[in-house]
Amino acid sequence: MTKRACIFVDGENFRHTIVELFTQFERSQYLPQRARWGDLFEWLVQQASPGAERVRTYWYVIQWLDFFPYKLRKLQSDSHKLQKVLSRHPPYKSELSKLQGLDLSRRMSEIVEGLEETRQAMQERFSGWIRIQDGISLRHPRIEFRRSGAICLNLFRNSFGPEKAVDVKLATDLIILRHIYDVAIIVSGDQDYVPAVQVVKNEGKTVVNVVFKTRGGRLLPGGARRLNQETDASLEIPYGDFARFLEVGAER
Q1: What's 178-240 look like in SS3?
Q2: Residue 132, φ and ψ in degrees, nearest 5
Q3: Is residue 223 predicted with pLDDT exceeding 60?
Q4: What are the CA-CA distances from residue 74 to residues 68, 71, 95, 101, 116 (Å)?
Q5: Contact (CB, 8 A) for 235 and 241
């Protein structure tokens, strides 16, 4: 009987791997535009379990984009509260403490406008990520993006915090969907999946973790050690093979 395989992709972990391996790839593009995703995932299945049938690739990404601080425009009607919120950022706190009256109001309005521009630009980028995901699903059969959780952009620092709940969704699906696969292939280095791996292994499933190599042949660093110890096998992906499917060229 032909074995059935499902691939579970930790989306942000996967994207960071691409950025880390291929320095010529611009992070702002989100994902390589010409990548042969379907071929890549079919190839991964055959490397992990020759002759198996790929049932589906589940690709886990964030569902919501949050921002900190929140609702800045609404605070403009209360200058005291607005200054208190803006002062959570030490450079603004130092600057605003030296101003008063109209000068203080004008400067706070300028800061709010700048932060709002950052928020709107990031919201547009996030919408672009969703369009890219939808396009991949349309062009490549049996690839499904599973959205869950959120990530927060700190507008003061223009930097993201950690994802929330995406890994929980992947781990949950790994268990819930265990009846539709014989082989689970995890594309992630997150050791948080270890408990879920233990559960499905107790159900008789084979679990393979995918790890990636640099051009020089070393494994990318990360939290994969415990996951590799718990899974039935670790599939090491050579740099050249990965580059071939992503069509981003080879550099390092």
Answers
A1: HHHCCEEEEECCCHHHHHHHHHHHHCCCEEEEEEEECCCCCECCCCHHHHHHHCCEEEEECHH
A2: -65, -45
A3: no
A4: 14, 6, 22, 20, 12
A5: no
Tell if the pTM clears 0.85, that is, is over it. Answer: yes
Mean pLDDT, residues 190-215 taken together: 93
Euclidean distance between CA atoms 45 and 184, whole angstroms: 9
> Quick one: 57 and 78 in the same domain?
no
- Spatial strand order of the sheet with 183-187 comes to 143-147, 53-61, 4-10, 183-187, 206-212, 233-237
Residue 136 pLDDT > 80, yes or no?
A: yes
CATH number of the domain where residue 30 is located: 3.40.50
Q: Are 174 and 238 contained in the same domain?
A: yes
**Full residue range of the structural domain in which residue 216 is found:** 4-62+163-246
Chain centroid offset of residue 214 CA: 20
Asked whether residue 171 falls in the same domain as residue 241, the answer is yes
Residues β-bridged to residue 60: 10, 146
Please tell me whether residues 22 and 42 are part of one structural domain.
Answer: yes
pLDDT for 49 beyond 80: yes
Whether pLDDT at 77 is above 70: yes
pLDDT of residue 252: 42
